[in-house]
Design brief:
Blueprint: H1 11-21, H2 37-48, H3 52-59
Family: Belongs to the UPF0337 (CsbD) family.
Protein name: CsbD family protein
Pfam families: CsbD
Length: about 60
């Protein structure tokens, strides 16, 4: 997984969409620091059970 991924759009807006789609996510689950995309994906995958590729496509630009 590339560490040069960039989140699409505004992160606060994206967090709201993720919480709506996956109601079990908390603010702690969605804590994001630049350069920690892989950690974020791992956390989300573990919490939601969604495929890493699906989450990556949803969150990141190609």
């Amino acid at each position: 997984m590339s560490t040069k991924m960039k989140l699409k759009g505004n992160w606060n807006e994206m967090k709201g969409k993720l919480k709506e789609k996956y109601g079990e996510l908390t603010d702690d689950d969605l804590a994001y620091a630049e350069g920690q995309e892989d950690q974020l994906l791992g956390k989300l995958q573990k919490k939601t059970g969604a495929a890493k590729e699906k989450l990556s496509k949803y969150l990141f630009e190609d």
